[in-house]
Design a protein that fits this description.
Chain A: It comes from Nocardioides mangrovi. The complex is a heterodimer of chains A (about 800) and B (about 300). Chain A is built from 29 helices and 21 strands. With about 800 residues, chain A is an alpha+beta fold. In chain A, strands 3, 4, 5, 16, 17, 18, 19 and 20 form an eight-stranded mixed sheet that branches. Chain B has about 300 residues and is an alpha+beta fold. The chains are: A alpha+beta (about 800), B alpha+beta (about 300). Strand 21 of chain A pairs antiparallel with strand 13 of chain B.
């Protein structure tokens, strides 16, 4: 049996309990396939459990390789979940949705214009005033009788659900800063790769033209008639729930991803804080909620916003998308009044009905909701007009009643629809799962255009979502994708290098962490090789050498948490334990974090590195054998080295130089640490030789050394090669020369800036070193070498601090002040 | 009465401030009882940006930005106003207070607009204590003018004026706890009490001309900015706003200069802003002078 046949057989079983059965998106009540699926039947029906299992595994790999993450509120970034089976709709069932969404966006825009301007809806009591004034999204600082923004709504999202009668209804509107269109595009990218035959056969609307339209709409939303307006995507930062979505949009559209601290207001205009100059910003695609977007006039404690932004918006000098007041539309209290508002503002009936909703501020609505309070959790959802239903979750019916009666205008009741169901693959079988559809509508030219497609979510019993691609089939294969034939492809997309201090800092840390992890992995590999030979013979010279190498590992990755000296456990924790500061997992985490902040500047190939390291880590978790340590460390190294390929093909701009500088400084630091841990003490000829060989191996200089010194390993030779040799890319001298080039290329470098002076001092100091003197023995130590390396490490640290101070500082954070009243 | 008002706010810092953005409510607004004859706002050091705008409540807001590094910032509002004593419709004041609740009577003219001042706001939290305290004044069917005036008397009697008891961010709950506060606290207290029963109340920011003690000269700069409350009374047009000053236990008259109103202090602070600096310490000094001016054509006594 195939998956779809099994599914069809299962869902056409007569229902055991009463009530209308949910609408099924794939199978009609008579057991036949819905029209949209009929065209796909030949391929789709052939899919077996095994196929889906394979496809699901591939999806997981693609998503990991692309670094697609999503954070639940209050949690850290986790993997994005995508089901292999898309939600498929044919042209005839899509068309009423499309018309309805376009009308709704136009209506919501008109509502927004009215509520922040003329307020006819309130004056004529078409919308009750408390619905608006009592909603936290109502942003008074942008309300003006003479408001100048005629199109505050540029991109709207609407969540739809299909009821048991097969009618689509609106569940919620998202207008503050709608998320998800990046995820929708990513879903499409993945599904088209894992189910290529089905995808090709389907004849569905491709999404790319919509992104071109989005780009064009954002550019056109600049005020006035600018030849080349600057558009930025304002993100709350890498810890945002939908950071991936934001970075995806920024890099796909070719707009820089910025944070509040990257922007500054001067004389009522908004500027990007480029080093040494300010670049005017014309359009801000905002992913920061309005309340947080200006510490001057909105929340004073916000560090995510731009002080003065509201004033710039009011003067019409920057266009914020969506407008700062748009949050008031995310208000279920509006729903009962939208039909009347539509008649009043657009002069036409509302096409797309909302799920039946009652506002408790209206006495009749209050009666209905109070009568039905017993249905909470089943047929009725009660929620505040500006908060989630969850706030009432643990309350008894009486407590909910009291809450409502204390401030009825704060609450709505909404019918919980019997949502339509669609197959979702879970734990080895497809189950019928309730589905909602997030749609997107864009102001393009003079009209609102819905994305032909969307982001579907299947909701399991724990109300945890699994996303699905949404396929809307063309009625005719010659239909233009998205119904957009006149949109120019994005070939003209101007790639805007952003060298704001925060981005340079992210790049710098990209370089440092990548180098740190790489060097540590090499050391772990060298140490593990020794361990393989000598772990059973601690008293042998090899055993003593191993101990030295482990000291070096501990110097970088912190002491072993294992007192019994369990080597393998130690190696594993160096590679896997996130709490081991300086360890590989910790370094990878820092690397990932640095990269997320500059995601829009980097090739999407970047994330493959983590696909590789993640799989290597999973393999190590799964395999208890010692050889897996070397195996996984080796594969992690492969992953990390692939980042070199990413940087190799980057434009040679300030960001690239910041990466190079970070790498060079970190390498100098790592080599110095390695030498300090291994060469400053005399341990007998055999041990020293063994240790030095391992050092050379981990510094990738063994071959050169052998060629140059004919296998005769002495400290002098090793130090010559790793400290002084200007031709060895692994030497400190080489690293400092590299650092000098990169540093000089950073904006803000003058030839005599403090970091440059410190670097010149270091270079001079290193140049005057005589290796013969360094290796001089005093007791068991080499005191000159100890002194030199100690000093060198301090100096490198000071240099890195100076670089941060001169090149990455974006100035002090904003601080609110006020004054008192008598 | 005619007054020249000078309101100077000075911030001093122990290190350079490189960027300072601010908004101020320093320009008096015209009202039926108040004519604004002239006004200006001066910022020192010289601002790169200084602009006036009218906010959603009709107040004049001044926006400014100073980017020249500075350790002292002075914002001065100067204005000349002619103030009379507000008059209210007697029938409207005599109507039961229950009629003045916009959420209960959304059909009343102006109720929709008054709604914004009937809902809770962050600075005037409607605690249970505020509800109980106000209930003694808001007896069923009592004329609205009488009921809210009674509340004002009680607040004045029960609460002590004490500038050390509270701060600019004090809450209604704290004012109850200390049984003391300043004008801002008493205004918030009045607002919380009346809103918790459904009335619409504004927070009003302004000045009160102080009378020198008998036989003494007026001390220049010894005045302070002031705050009081105004209650929506439906009946005439979109309704009237009965302004009362619980700090001084009186209705607002011709010694009161109205600058701005909002839902609470947070909507209309005289000056607030954002600074960018490494400075650790800042000190604030405020001086207000409300100088009576003889109208043209009269001579000084």
């Amino acid at each position: 049996m195939t998956v779809l046949r099994d599914y069809a057989a299962a869902v056409t079983q007569p229902a055991l309990v009463g009530g209308a059965p949910p609408y099924d998106e794939v199978v009609a009540p008579d057991g036949s396939l819905r029209p949209a699926w009929k065209g796909l039947a030949e391929i789709a029906v052939g899919l077996t459990d095994a196929d889906l299992r394979r496809v699901q595994a591939e999806i997981g790999r693609f998503l990991t390789d692309d670094g697609v993450t999503y954070a639940r509120p209050g949690r850290s970034q986790g993997r994005w979940r995508l089901d292999p089976v898309p939600l498929v709709l044919d042209a005839s069932s899509w068309s009423p949705i499309e018309v309805g969404l376009a009308q709704r966006a136009e209506l919501l825009n008109a509502v927004l214009v009215d509520l922040y301007g003329e307020q006819r809806l309130l004056r004529e009591r078409i919308v009750p005033a408390p619905v608006v004034f009592g909603h936290s999204g109502y942003t008074r600082v942008v309300a003006r009788p003479d408001a100048i923004d005629p199109r505050p709504l540029v991109l709207a999202a609407t969540d739809l659900g299909r009821d048991a009668d097969g009618q689509w209804r609106v569940l919620a509107d998202r207008a503050q800063a709608p998320s998800g269109i990046g995820y929708a595009m990513e879903n499409r990218r993945v599904i088209s790769r894992v189910l290529p035959e089905l995808y090709r056969e389907a004849g569905l609307h491709r999404m790319e033209p919509y992104f071109w339209a989005l780009r064009s709409a954002l550019i056109q939303s600049a005020q006035g008639d600018l030849a080349d307006p600057r558009v930025v995507v304002l993100s709350p930062g890498t810890h945002s729930e939908t950071a991936y979505d934001q970075a995806f949009i920024a890099s796909t559209l070719g707009f820089p991803l910025v944070e509040g601290s990257d922007l500054v207001v001067r004389d009522g205009w908004v500027y990007l804080r480029a080093p040494g100059r300010l670049e005017k910003v014309d359009v801000i695609l905002r992913r920061v909620d309005a309340a947080w977007s200006d510490p001057l006039e909105l929340r004073g404690d916000s560090q995510l916003g731009v002080a003065g932004l509201v004033e710039a918006v009011r003067r019409g000098r920057v266009r914020v998308v969506n407008g700062l007041g748009a949050g008031v539309l995310e208000n279920p209290g509006l729903m009962p009044y939208l039909p009347a508002a539509c008649e009043a503002l657009l002069g036409e009936p509302l096409r797309l009905a909302s799920a039946p909703t009652w506002w408790c501020g209206d006495p009749a609505g209050l009666d209905v909701v109070l009568d039905r309070l017993g249905e909470i959790g089943e047929g009725l959802i009660v929620r505040p007009i500006d908060g989630p239903a969850e706030v009432l979750l643990d309350l008894s019916v009486d407590e909910v009643r009291q809450r409502i009666l204390a401030a009825p205008y704060r609450f709505v009741g909404q019918d919980r629809l019997t949502l339509s169901q669609t197959p979702v693959w879970s734990r080895g079988q497809t189950r019928p799962t309730p589905v909602t559809l997030r749609t997107f509508t864009l102001r393009y030219g003079s009209a609102y255009r819905p994305l032909v497609g969307g982001l579907a979510n299947g909701w399991d019993d724990a109300r945890s979502p699994t996303s699905m691609d949404v396929w809307v089939l063309k009625s005719d294969p010659t239909d233009p994708d998205q119904g957009l034939s006149g949109v120019l492809p994005m070939t003209a997309a101007r790639s805007v290098p952003t060298t704001v201090p925060r981005v340079l800092e992210g790049m710098f840390w990209f370089g440092r962490y990548a180098e740190r992890v790489e060097d540590l992995l090499r050391l772990v590999l060298a140490a593990h090789a020794l361990a393989d030979d000598f772990r059973a013979r601690p008293r042998s010279t090899g055993g003593a050498s191993l101990a030295v190498l482990m000291d070096a590992v501990h110097r970088l990755a912190g002491p072993s948490p294992y007192v019994d000296g369990d080597l393998d456990a130690d190696f594993r924790s160096v590679l896997l334990d996130p709490r081991r500061i300086g360890g590989v997992d910790h370094g990878l985490d820092g690397l990932r974090d640095a990269l997320r902040g500059v995601r829009d500047q980097l090739s999407s190939d970047t994330w493959r590195a983590f696909g590789t390291t993640d799989r290597a880590a999973d393999a190590l978790e799964a395999n208890p054998h010692s050889h897996q340590v070397a195996e996984s460390a080796g594969r992690m190294l492969t992953g990390i080295l692939s980042l070199q390929g990413v940087t190799a093909s980057m434009i040679r701009d300030a960001g690239w130089h910041a990466i190079g500088l970070g790498r060079a400084l970190e390498r100098a630091l790592q080599v110095a640490h390695l030498l300090a841990a291994t060469t400053t003490e005399r341990r007998g000829i055999d041990v020293d030789r063994e240790v030095l060989n391992a050092v050379l191996a981990s510094a990738e200089s063994a071959v050169t050394h052998r060629r140059r010194y004919r296998g005769y390993v002495r400290p002098t030779g090793v130090l010559e090669l790793l400290l002084m040799d200007p031709a060895n890319p692994r030497s400190v001298t080489f690293a400092l020369a590299e650092a000098r080039t990169h540093l000089a290329a950073l904006p803000g470098s003058t030839g005599s800036s403090r970091p440059e002076r410190l670097l010149e001092d270091l270079v001079a100091e290193l140049g005057s070193v005589d290796v013969a003197e360094l290796v001089t023995i005093g007791g068991v130590e080499r005191p000159n070498l100890v002194r030199f390396l100690d000093h060198f490490l301090v100096a490198i640290g000071r240099l890195a601090d100076a670089v941060a101070e001169v090149h990455f500082a974006s100035g002090p954070a904003p601080r609110p002040f006020g004054g008192g009243a008598g | 009465m005619r007054y020249v008002v000078t309101h100077t706010t000075t911030y001093s810092y122990d290190d350079d401030v490189t960027d300072s953005l601010g908004v101020g409510h320093l320009v008096p607004r015209p009202t039926p009882a108040q004519e604004v004859l002239g006004s200006e706002v001066l910022v020192d050091p010289e601002p790169v940006d200084l602009a006036a705008d009218t906010d959603c409540y009709g107040n004049t807001v001044t926006y400014f930005q100073v980017t020249r590094p500075h350790r002292r910032l002075t914002v001065e509002g100067r204005s000349e106003v002619e103030v009379g004593t507000p008059a209210y419709d007697g029938d409207a004041l005599a109507a039961p207070w229950e009629r003045a609740r916009p959420l209960w009577h959304p059909e009343a003219p102006g109720a929709w607009r008054a709604t914004d001042f009937a809902l809770p706001s962050a600075g005037a939290e409607q605690t249970d204590e505020a509800w109980s305290y106000a209930a003694a004044s808001l007896r069923p069917g009592r004329p609205v003018g009488e009921a809210v005036t009674d509340l004002m008397h009680r607040i004045h009697a029960d609460f002590r004026y004490d500038a050390t008891a509270t701060t600019v961010t004090s809450t209604v709950e704290e004012t109850f706890r200390h049984r003391a506060g300043v004008c801002q606290d008493f205004a918030h207290l009045t607002i919380a009490c009346l809103r918790s029963h459904g009335l619409a109340v504004r927070y009003v920011s302004g000045y009160l001309a102080t009378l020198p003690p008998p036989g003494k000269d007026r001390v220049v700069g010894a005045d302070a900015s002031h705050a009081w409350a105004a209650v929506w009374v439906p009946g005439v047009d979109e309704g009237e706003w009965l302004a009362l000053d619980p700090t001084n236990d009186q209705w607002v008259g011709d010694r009161y200069v109205t600058v701005a109103w909002g839902r609470d202090y947070g909507d209309v602070p005289p000056v607030k802003g954002v600074i960018f600096t490494e400075a650790k310490k800042s000190t604030l000094t405020v001086s207000v002078d409300v100088a009576p001016v003889a109208p043209v054509g009269t001579t000084a006594p």
